[in-house]
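Subgroup meeting minutes
Present: P.N., E.W., G.H.
Scribe: E.W.

1. P.N. recapped why we're keeping a running log of single-chain structure predictions: easier to compare across weeks, and new members can see raw inputs and outputs side by side.
2. G.H. added today's entry (164 aa).
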Amino acid sequence: MNNKRIMSLITALIAASALSIVSCGDSDDDDSKDMQQPVISNKDIVENPIDCQVYHRGETILFHYIMTDNQELGAYNIEIHNNFDHHTHSTTSVDCEMDAKKTPQHPWVYNQDYAIPSGLRSYEAKFDIPIPADIDTGDYHFMIRLTDKAGWQQIHSVAIKIAE
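Output recorded in log:
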């Protein structure tokens, strides 16, 4: 092979490599990449539940929050579990008066996934969650886990109390 042909081949390889790097590389200007967490909000509504709220066995908890995302929402989960051991999830700075620590006998455990219709950037969730009549009374956590379509997650946890 002559030098001219070798140089032409090397130039072609360099050009192909450069084109490959440019076409496959990540761009900071790429608006299609979702790099933001979704938001659990109370904007323009009265959110519920809130920290330190007291409910009674056999009643219902009205769940009401607004969920938003910069691109597209995915789904959310609601979990309610006892806090008889006084653990924390640290999403708020509110201190509620707590009962004495105790061992659960028949605690309430609620864990439900909810779909959000495709293509939405804002969703208002509002419905009743029945409280069983035969559960242990005491301190509980009400947790909301919101996930957007890209997989980013926001968690909001409030301390509630279930009374007789």
